[in-house]
Amino acid sequence: MRVQVAIVGGGPAGHLLGQLLHKAGIDAIVIEQRSRDYVLGRIRAGVLEQGTTDLLDELGVGARMHREGLVHGGLSLDFGGAHHRIDLHQLTGGKQVMVYGQTEVTHDLMDARSAAGLKTVYEAEHVSLHDFDGEHPKVRYTQHGINGKEEHEVECDFIAGCDGFHGVSRASVPAGALQTFERIYPFGWLGILADTPPVSHELVYTNHARGFALCSMRSHTRSRYYVQCSLDDKVENWSDEAFWDELRRRLAPDLAENLVTGPSIEKSIAPLLQLCGRAHAFRPAVSGRRCRAYRAAHRCQGPEPGGQRCALPGALLAEFYAGSEAGIDNYSAICLRRVWKAVRFSWWFTSLMHKFPDESGFGPRIQAAELDYLIHSPAASASLAENYVGLPLESW
Ligand code: PHB
């Protein structure tokens, strides 16, 4: 089989890129190692940047999101027992974020993909990337067919690696073509999902002497809460009661009083712990003329920038097939300019809101000064807001 682009990974990134390419008239296949149900069963982040919601609208897959999602025009920064609202909508000239699970986005993209009759392979085994550096890259995989195991080969112009940090794409990039930069934070996030009404109608980020806490949600009846925990903590150490008690201790008094607790439906040292624990960015994955794998950065604070992450390769591939190779030839540089800004914001917000175990004198005072500045300076609030809703795509 031959396609223009082979997308490895059928999560939100792979499916979004698939839809972008379809819109640009580019022929692509999505190859996913897991089953459709498995992909849809993953617990993922739940807040989308404005750029992502705009993109989903452009692709014609935003209808359910607008019906079921919750638009948030602000958030609360809590410290010293008080709330400080950051008016995202006003500070960004009308932008906002959307509470709508990434899993739901994936669901909508999958539906659109099947409705358009586009090919996705699920449960592909032994996925491998070949001739990565050459003119004719290939993806091979095996699949159970009526005659037992069948071998498949997809030849393409580009392989788009959308299978995450631990996926086969990154592992296949020749050593030396990849540089990793990471920041490991000395703490994690313990997360809980519960069918209780959210304690506040907007997200609340709390800086507290006991550690960071975040009140988020998935809907009017489903809450998502996180508390900063130590790196060696274990979920087994946390009963639901212990979690709620710790959360209550970190919240401002009125929220602590109004917090509705209930049995957890999921509790983990969340995958977000990894996102939070490390920020990765990769420097050129440019090897060979025509084939590049791409990979963006993990981010732990703020809405998920996944949509924007796909917009760029989608646009550059569309340009390439329309006859202009300049963009795709500079893919790494163009992409990394953006990625590092997302990493920078995440690092800044993480540094501002968490308790750093080794810092007791200077660090907390700098945090306090910065928080004070942030809520009193319109310029500083606006900077937080414009990064939080997602920086606009720059021209290249
Ligand atoms: C979440 O709801 O999982 C969430 C929301 C905002 C963040 C991080 C995680 O900054």
List keywords for this structure.
D-Amino Acid Oxidase, Chain A, domain 2, globular, 2 domains, alpha+beta, 396 residues, 19 strands, 7-stranded mixed β-sheet, 15 helices, single chain, binds P-hydroxybenzoic acid, 23% strand, 4-stranded parallel β-sheet, FAD/NAD(P)-binding domain
How would you describe the overall organization of this protein?
By secondary structure, the protein is α+β, with helices and mostly antiparallel strands. It has 2 domains: 5-183 and 277-389, FAD/NAD(P)-binding domain (3-Layer(bba) Sandwich); 188-270, D-Amino Acid Oxidase, subunit A, domain 2 (D-Amino Acid Oxidase, Chain A, domain 2, 2-Layer Sandwich), CATH 3.30.9. The chain has 15 helices and 19 strands. The chain has helices at 12-23, 36-41, 50-58, 63-68, 88-91, 102-115, 168-172, 240-250, 253-258, 272-277, 306-321, 326-329, 331-353, 362-376, 378-388, and strands spanning 5-8, 28-31, 47-48, 70-72, 75-79, 82-86, 97-99, 120-121, 125-130, 138-145, 148-155, 158-161, 179-181, 188-194, 203-207, 213-217, 223-229, 264-269, 281-283. The longest helix has 23 residues, at 331-353. The structure holds P-hydroxybenzoic acid (PHB). P-hydroxybenzoic acid (PHB) binds at residues 45-47, 203, 216, 224, 301-302.
In short:
The protein is an alpha+beta fold and 396 residues long. The protein has helices at 12-23, 36-41, 50-58, 63-68, 88-91, 102-115, 168-172, 240-250, 253-258, 272-277, 306-321, 326-329, 331-353, 362-376, 378-388, and strands at 5-8, 28-31, 47-48, 70-72, 75-79, 82-86, 97-99, 120-121, 125-130, 138-145, 148-155, 158-161, 179-181, 188-194, 203-207, 213-217, 223-229, 264-269, 281-283.
